[in-house]
Design brief:
Blueprint: H1 2-36, E1 43-52, E2 55-65, E3 68-75, E4 79-82, E5 89-94, E6 97-102, H2 104-119, E7 126-132, E8 136-138, E9 146-147, H3 151-156, H4 165-168
Parallel strand pairs: 3-7, 4-8, 7-9
Antiparallel strand pairs: 1-2, 2-3, 4-5, 5-6
Amino acid sequence: NRWNIFHLILLLWLNKTMSLRGWFGEKKTTFNMWLSLNKEVYRRFHDVIIPSKNGTTQIDHLLVSPYGLFIVETKNLTGWIFGSEDQPRWTQTLSRRKYSFQNPLRQTYRQKKDLSGFLGIDESAIHTAVFFAGDCKFKTKMPANVMKSGIGRHIKRFRNRVLSPEEIDPPLRG
């Protein structure tokens, strides 16, 4: 019985620690985007929740600009990261221990579908990126939209205007 209580306390502590780590990672990404992206061009929204077929979808960071909408998923992980675009699960290795996590590209793919349907805009106007905010090292080649630095630089590469000023900031109707 004492052993079960100990395990429960340990699991609660680990859950809180993981939540706190995720929160710090998201704040680090927010700060990085604040430094590197002009707020007059890129409107920023954080911790966005929208309806989806299965309930709701949570988006860490959503940027709205003439160059499209940008979904940025933050992962605050340390150690070695292994994964590829088509694998359903990626691996984090820490001191010879391996931990599996969902491929974040699949997560942003679902978020993109949900956001497109929710806003009624074409998916081609939505771009996704995964930003690893922790001290990790990629041990496999990652796609161009998965990075450990340069999130602002990556977003600024998109220069084709795909949204009108009215689509970005619709006039109030009254």
